[in-house]
Design goal:
single chain, 209 residues, alpha+beta, 4-stranded antiparallel sheet, elongated
């Protein structure tokens, strides 16, 4: 449809322009319908910023969220949204084992990695991600996925500064020259997922087999 073609054109322009070559990318493989759910391969490129990696390396918990929508193409009309949901992965660092552990939104373990490089590779190369809660799709219509990935993480110095403030310490560290109020606002925004890395992608079209 015209709407999907416009979204795909903007995405392709973003990948083609040299000035945007270092921007994070979210690539979706061909969606597949299995046992009532949709599965899709997801690849993230250039997603983790230096500050994100430093926070993860310091053992600060983080959450990686994939928000998705299934749309049905309609000629002459805006494409219809038929389902939406999210896949949430929580990242914890086990101090005793010195390893990173990955859990889903229900607290079920998804795996563990000893090194940060292994963790980021696991997070960025997702095979057969299951999108639960998909309604029964109809035979005939053309569908596609839109997905947004965002990382919710808090910097180690921000946590230390906030803890110092709570303890009433006069030498609470400043963050990049910000006042305590500014630092606290930035911390709240990050914890709410309003100030982190976000990237969007569109899948190829698919039909119900």
């Amino acid at each position: 449809s015209d709407m999907r073609n416009l979204i795909l054109l903007l995405f392709l322009l973003g990948t083609a322009l040299p000035s945007l070559a270092e921007e994070p990318l979210l690539e979706l493989g061909q969606p597949r319908v299995r046992e009532g759910n949709i599965e899709v391969d997801v690849t993230l490129t250039g997603f983790f910023r230096k500050g994100d990696l430093e926070s993860l390396e310091a053992g600060v918990p983080a959450t990686l969220i994939f928000r998705w929508k299934v749309l049905r193409e309609r000629e002459g009309w805006r494409d219809a949204e038929v389902a939406r949901g999210e896949v949430e992965n929580r990242i914890y660092f086990d101090v005793l084992e010195e390893s990173y552990h990955l859990f889903d939104h229900r607290g079920r373990p998804l795996g563990a990695c000893d090194a940060l490089a292994g963790l980021t590779e696991t997070l960025c190369q997702r095979e057969a991600m299951v999108l639960e809660g998909t309604p029964t799709l109809e035979d005939g219509p053309t569908y596609y996925l839109e997905m947004e990935a965002s990382l919710r993480t808090v910097g180690r110095r921000e946590v230390q500064g906030f803890e110092s403030w709570l303890l009433g310490e006069e030498d609470a560290p400043e963050m990049n020259g910000e006042t305590l109020g500014g630092m606290t606002l930035g911390l709240i925004k990050k914890m709410a997922g309003l100030d982190g890395t976000t990237v969007r992608g569109v899948s190829p079209e698919f039909h119900l087999d």
